[in-house]
Structure formats: C-alpha cells, structure tokens
Amino acid sequence: MTQSPPLTGLRVLEFAGLAPGPFAGLLLADYGASVLRIDRAHPSAHASSANPPPPTPDQLTRRKSSIAVNTKTPQGLALIKRLIPQTDILIDPFRPGVLEKMGLSPSEVLLKLNPRLIVARMTGFRRDGKYADMAGHDINYLAVSGVLSMLGRAGEKPYAPANIVGDFGGGGLVCFVGILLALLQRERTGLGQVVEANMVDGSGFLASMPRFAMDRKGTWDRERGTNLLDGGAPFYDTYETKDGGFMAVGALEPQFFEALLKGLEIKAEEIGGDRMDRRTWQRQREVYTRRFKEKTRVEWEAVFDGTDACCTPVLTQQELRRERGFDQRPIVTLRNSPGHAIQEGEAEGRQAAEGQGIGVEGDGWSEKGLRPGEGGEDVLGQWMGWTKGNHAGELKPARASQAPAGRSNWSLMPFDTKDIDWHSPDQSAQPRRPQTPPARLHQLSFEGAVEYFRRPSQTSLPSSPLARPHTSAGLYTSAPTGYIEKGDLETQQQRSQEQAAATSASTPPATSETSPTMPPKQQQNADSVENQVGSIFSISGPVIVAQHMIGCAMYELCKVGHDQLVGEVIRIEADKATIQVYEETAGVTVGDPVTRTGKPLSVELGPGLMETIYDGIQRPLKGISDESKSIYIPRGIDVPSLDRTKQWEFTPTPNMKEGDHITGGDCFGTVWENSLLNEHRILLPPRARGTITRMPKKGSYTVDQKILEVEFEGEKKEYSMMHEWPVRVPRPVTDKLSSQEPFVVGQRVLDALFPGVQGGTVCIPGAFGCGKTVISQSVSKFSNSDIIVYVGCGERGNEMAEVLMDFPELTIDVEGRKEPIMKRTCLIANTSNMPVAAREASIYTGITVAEYFRDQGKNVAMMADSTSRWAEALREISGRLGEMPADQGFPAYLGAKLASFYERAGRVVSMGSPERKGSVSIVGAVSPPGGDFSDPVTSSTLGIVQVFWGLDKKLAQRKHFPSINTSQSYSKYTTTLEPFYQREMPEFPRMAARVKEILSTSEDLDQVVQLVGKSALGDGDKITLDVATLLKEDFLQQNGYSDYDQYCPLWKTAWMMRCMMGFHDEAQKAIGTGQAWAKVRDATADIQTRLRSMKFELPDDGEEKVGKKYEELEKEMQEKFASVMDE
Q1: What digits encode the pLDDT tens for the residues 337-385?
Q2: At 87, phi and psi to the nearest 5?
Q3: Domain residue ranges in the chain
Q4: What is the CATH number of domain 475-502+526-601?
Q5: 124/132 Cα distance (integer angstroms)
Q6: Could you tell me which of 610, 963, 950 has the C-alpha nearest to residue 780?
Q7: pLDDT at position 323
Q8: Could you tell me which CATH class the domain 234-323 is placed in?
Q9: Keyword Nucleotide-binding, does the record have it (predicted)?
Q10: How far is CA 467 from CA 137, 608, 1048, in A?
C-alpha cells in the first residue's frame, strides 16, 4: 500500500536565493514538505494584480508557493517572526551575517521563538574561513576546495565546469542531507538546531576518493589529465564519431576491455602491448580515435548496446528531453512512502513508487518559474488561518484543538484594512469592490510587510492600437506638406457641422414624418459618424474598393468590415477609395461598412519597445497570444502596442521647470528600461511646442499617463511618455551629417574589405542557404550599434520561427557580463503566410522605430529580411490595381519605393535639446530567385545602396562562410572612412587594398593554372597563389559558432592582415635573392602554421596580450626569412 511522502506535514520557509538554497527546498517539496518562498517586495514596479511581477529567474520552484515581503520594514520583520513558530525548517541562502543584520539571528531570535526550528544556512565559502566576507560563484568554491585543479586535460588550464558540483552537489544536496540529519536528531531530543553547509567543504567531500588515492601509485598521483580516472587512460575517455557525436569509454576491468576491443574490431597486438603500460597509452588513443571516426554514433550504439564493453553514447540534454523521452525522476525512490511524482497527473503516488510511471504533458525539465506572491495566500491559509481574497473580516487564530503540535495560537494586533489584492493563480485580475470593514478590526499587522497588488485605475483604451485619439502632431492629409499643423480631426468636424447648420438654417425644417425628433447635439454627432462610414464596393484579395468615402485622405487608416480589419487608403477616385487590408479578408462581403479613422497608419513610440516582438503593424505577438489563447492572430484583434499596465521609473530632466519653453524633440525626462538601455529619453513629439505649465515629478508612471502639460497660443495639451508617429513620414531632424565611423560587424571579410559606416546602407543579396541569417545574427550580436531593429518581412514561417527562438538565446558581453541581445533588440515578424499588404507596413514600422531611437542619440542598425518579399507584395498589389507592369511584373515605381526607404538611413543631428547625434544603418537582405543578381529588386537596390555584400552559392556549398564573393562585392565608403583609419589604424587601408589585389590576381592565375598547370608559373606567381589560399582559408573564412572566431575585432583583423602581407613581402624578397620558392616554403612551414593559427587567439584575452603574440610571430618570421636568404 502506498503511503504519503515521508516529509508530509513539514513546513519550510525558504528565503529566495540562488541555486543551492532553492535546490534544497525543491528536494524537500518533492518529498511532501510545504515550502513557502519569501521574495522581495517591489511595490513600485508591480502595483496591481493586472500587472503581476514576472516569474523569477529561479526555475527550482516545483510545488512551492510565494509571498513577497518587505524585510526592511518593522512590519515585514514582524510577519516573518510570526511565521517562525509555525515553521519546521528555515533555509538561509545569504552570505554570512545577512540574517543577523536583518534582526533574525538564529541563536538570538529564531530558536528562541521556536526551539524546534531547524535553520539550514547555506554559504559558498566557509563561514569561518579567510574568504568568508568575499563574493564568489561555483567556480570560486571549486577552486579553493581543490576540486577545480583536478578538472581538465594535461597541459591545459583547468576548465570551468557547469555549476553542478558546487551549487547542486556540494551545496543544495549536502544541505538537504544536513536537514535530514537534524530532523532525525529532533526526533530524539525535541530540539532544533542550526545546520551549517558550505559549497567548499561539500564539493571537497565529493572529491574524497581522488584525495584518498593521491598516495596510491597509478591511480591519482600524477598531474591533471594523466591519471587513470581523469581522461589520462585511453580506455577511460571520450571519442568523437564520424557524425560529430561522442562515445564514452570506461573499460577499466580486463573483461570489459576485452569486450571493448571486440566491438571495435581491434586486435590486442594493435595497441602495442599491455593496456596498463603508460608507454602504450598514446598509441592506444590514436588507434581508438581513428576507429571511432569510422562510424556514426548511432552505428556505434548498435554495436555496443547490450554488451559489457562499458561504452555508451554521450547524450545531450536536448536529446534526453525531446528525442529519447527520458522523464526526470525523483532523486531516490521509496517503494512504500514515495515522494511526489515529478510529473503531475493521476495516481502520482503510484507513479513515484514505481520510479516515475507513464509521463504526462509537462515534465520536470520544463519549470515555468514562480511569480513573487503566487500561491502564498493558500499556504498562509493552511498555516495561519488567512482567508481568501480581500476579506475585511477578522483573521481568526487557530483554535487550541486545531493548532498543530508544538505551535501556539496567534497574538493579534490592530490593523486598518486596505484595498488589497493577492496575486494568486486562481484569483481574477479584474478589480473587485472591497467590503466595507468595521471601524476597528483585529488582524495581523500585514501593512507594509507583504507586497499587495493594488488595483489599477480604470482608463478607457482606444478601440484599436492603430486607431488612436488624435494628438498634436496634426491630421495627416493628402496635402503636399502631409500635415495640417493646427487642424485636428475635432476642429475639422466642428467646422463641417457649422457649415451644415448654416445650410440647414436656410431650408425649412423637416416634419416629424420625415425626420425623427433628435436633440441638435446628438443629431450633429450622428451626422459626423455617418460621414466617417462608407461601404465596400468590390473586393479583390487584400485590395478592396470602398464607396461613399468623400473626404478621406491618402494613406488614411480605415477599419474594414464588421471585424474591424485594419486597412490603408492607397488610391482615391471620386467618392471611391482603394484600400489595402493588412489582415485576411475572407468572409468580408460587398456592402460591409468601412470606417474612417481620420489618421494615418502610426506606431506607438515609448518605453517598452525593447525585448518585444511585434507583427507588421506593431501588434505585440505575446499580448495577442495571452489574450486570444491561440497560435494564430485572430482577425480584428485589438491589443495596445505598448503595455498600458507596466509602470516605468521616470526621472525628469534636471533644470527643466514650469515656465520654460519646450519644443519638439526636447528631452524632458529619462526612463531606465533595462541594463543595456539604461537611459531611454522621453521626447516631446516633433510637431509640439509651447510653455511648460505642469512639469512631472520623479516617480512611476504608465506610458499613457499624462504627465506633462504644455500651453501654446492659449491652448493647453497634455503629453505622456509615449507618442505616435505616421510610419510613412520620416521623422524630422535638425541636420544631416557625413558618416565617418565604421559599422563593425565582427566579420573580417566585411570589416576589412567591404566596410560599412554608421548611418550607411548595405545590401546582402544571396540565394537560399548562403548564410544571410548568420550574417544578420552577427550584426545583431556583435555590431557596434546601440539598438537593433530586426524586420522579418515575408520570410518563410519556419525561418522566422528560428529567428524568434534563436535571438532570445543570443547574448552579448558587456563589461564582463553576459546580457541577452533582446535587451537592445526589437523584432518585427511578418511571415509569408500573412497578408502581403502587411509586408510593406512592416518595413515602414521598423524604420520608424529605428528613427525614434536615432533621435535619442543612439546608433541603430535595422535589418530587413528580406526586401524581395516586400517587392513581391508591391507586385501583387500593383497587379490587382491594374497598373502597367514593368520588368518581371514589378511596378514601374519599384526603384522609387526602395529609394524612399533606404534614404531614411543616415547620421543626423536630432531635433531638440540637449544636442544629440544618432544614426540609422540599414542592412537589407535580398533573396533573388536562384541567386540571380540581375533580378529587378537586386539591380534596383544596388543603384541605391553604397555597400554590396554579395553571397556566392558555390562558396556556401563548399562550406566557406561567410560566403562573400570578393570579386563581386564592393564598398563606396572606403574614402569616407579614411579620417578614422588615419586616426586609429594608418596602415589598415593599404593592407586591405593589398589583400584585394592578391585575391584578384589569384583569380586570374587560377585560369592560367587550369590551362597549363601550376608548374608553369614563376615563383612570384606561386607565392601569390599560396598566400591567396592562406587568405581564403584562414582570413576570409570564420566559424560563427566558435568562441575564438565568431567575432573578430578590428585590431585583430589588422594584425592578421599585417602578418600575412608581411609573409608575402618576405617571400618575394627571398626569391629575389635567388632562392627557390619550394625551398623557402619548406623552410618556413612552421611560420605558415602559426599564421594559420592566428585566428585561434581569443579576442577576450585583450589587444595587449594577443598583440604581443602577434609581434613575436612577426619578429620570428623576419628572422626566419633572414636566415633562409643567408643560406
């Protein structure tokens, strides 16, 4: 019979911390304990249940609940102290002395409140050691425990392992064992105690066997990586297979070793003698390495499965999770009183008792994190008698008969009730009206202790993110200027109503039979609404024609049909307007209403753009998914582009006060958005101006909260932290500047031979599979831009899905710490299965977002992948409009459309004060059919952009990446960058020109070699060919998935060119003295090898350290050639 888990009934308080503490709490929860985590309270950032805090990074949250407590207040400490008598175990994950500073000393406070309490204290270093007051991580604890010195290959530095040994093995698991020992002791004595655990001693104890074996000859008495059990023995090591997988070999015993040789089909004499003789180990390793390379890992699995060869595949975590279906199981199985099954489901006790049982959806490897405050209400109800919701009744203490053994009743304190909400999984986010409390209640004093999520104020939101109330930017019209400075929609409507009233005054009033009685104001409003609504006249795919649209403007936003589909006017003829619809038009019929909005397609600009993924018309995909619970975008869905509930900490601009004059583009405050965008400037909209009548104070505001009031010509207007801007209108600037700073992407072939500039335009045409996405990721991850805007315009859904999955996982090294590049990235995803009209909108949406950050003084890189899909959308729309087609059916104005997009790039002086200089660099990927660069889109683009990075499919097929064709590519910015090179690297342009010259000459020589052979060439030409091969294989090629070559800084690129060109010059000098190239080449083979190894130097080691190595190489090369010429 299966019994309850062994720790059922235990109550655990876990202070939120890093891995070891939560892991110990996870083990306790898995075996039945009730674990309540104490999180820090953040009232300013998350002040409502509609805007709960995000899940914490801690994923070790299974079966835990949380309360958020402000431990810096007396009320917070009082709450914790009142929880202590109800608690069996408290987990302290802090550094030494933190609990004491909080006023929760275990000996002086906690154990006096509850003598049965077990206080588990988990530290990194020893509490009484020399490092006690120092910060550290897993690698530091392993280092001082002696364990790290044992990990690694012979002759190499110790490698940094994952935080398994220190954090989890020597930390959390050891702490869990200490808690169990203390529980056993409490059963005997009835008293709790302090459990001291630290990762130094825990990790060191795990290494007991190697330490004991140090004096035993032949086991662990040699240097790292040469012992029997640390990879020194060839029969206890890992080997790479044909397909890049690995097999692990552990054939220590003779009978197992014999089975290994049998599976490998190796005879005993081939290994050169006794397998335990260290003199044969090198030969054994070579034999095993060659043999394992002959088959794939799957083939070797088939050979060794079911044998005693101690040879198994090295499985990855991804394989365990996806392919092999290995569910996570409890750490140990108790048959009669098992822990909880890792997977939730029916009969979990039986499943756990049998090891795991049949898995159900959602296993233990896929934790989702725990929000601060989640589930804590229920746990406090079980522990303390807290009732659900916003109760205003009395918190009833447990009766004596109901109080658990060893726990006393509650002492109550006066408490004034508040309008509060717990963030609980089963509690609705909708605000509720609190009950009216009595004048005085007796409750626990929670005020200031627990983080309550207060209700948000109710604000009316626009009906659509794209149809928002008109702002001071003016009404977009078909007038040449594009704007009517002071004429907003309401003003025009009022004038039309006045004219209608004047006209009706000269006509007799309608009778009751012909016109129903209606108050004048309501009649005017009805007329105004009627004037804004037309009807569908015809439909052709995404293009519809609406009638009764007199008064509409070009590019005005409209709502089509009963589902309010988003569309844009692209042609006006008499009372008919042609509208391209950005959503699927299936189900729309002739006669359906078309509602004008009186404004153009606009985007919202403000805090919250970073780390967000939008569709082509700036609708947040995550917000749509959360609201619709669908994997598809429902038609007509309305989700604000910027989160209306999240609050941002606003800091006003110093020295700006009420009464000051302010104009468009002025910065009136800043917001800390994330660690990479720590100063998001809040700008006044470009068309606004006036005198400040109300200046915001420092505090937390939502993006739509009106915080600034400006008066101009007697009219007052309020502004929030966000504003809107029409996507088709370039944002105005004060001045345009020439770009003289390089656009560094970390690819040697691009930075050296075909450089771009900050504020420049780049085109990347290439067929499918040529590596456009890899270059795009390199630009996103390593470019010297501050902000990245990535627009997936009409690409295949699987490619866009890959981008959406990969980008959040990419990181960037900032001041020695890893940061996700999503913190400086805005993704706009518009796949090929979405309506074609939205492709054009996505391009304009992306460039408008880029211009917004440019106006803040940032260098922005915008990537459009790919503009070919946009051009195909133009072709389809043009065809449905019946326009005259040009080459391959594209519209005749294709070049003009592309030019209007690329012309929005550049380096500028932004409007407003303080003076800011920013840039927008556009990198446009083009996908010509079959890689044909004569495609109209490619040829039109090349006539506009200044840099051409041509991708060659033949190079890509040869696995030459980046697959840049150096003979076709070009850059027109070489002259522009000369001031930068003269200031920073005077020799750089000359060396780059020489590299191009050698590569060009080698192409001509290759044709000669194909006709007459290489032997017919002179020694000088042979040197050129050999150096060109060196350049192609070790300079132009880069491994985008290696730590040493995924990014190459300019200084490393310059050193590599300098050394390789130096080799070419020295070789030419040598043959000039009469030496044969064949002899010189053989004599300098070691120098060539070192030249090929230059790329393996890690940029993270720094320019000074790596530069010294390159200087030594250059010096040795000169000495070597001097000695050759002297012979």
Answers
A1: 777 766 554 444 444 444 444 333 334 444 567 778 777 777 887 787 6
A2: -110, 140
A3: 234-323, 475-502+526-601, 613-630+640-723, 740-949, 985-1127
A4: 2.40.30.20
A5: 8
A6: 610
A7: 60
A8: alpha beta
A9: yes
A10: 51, 20, 46
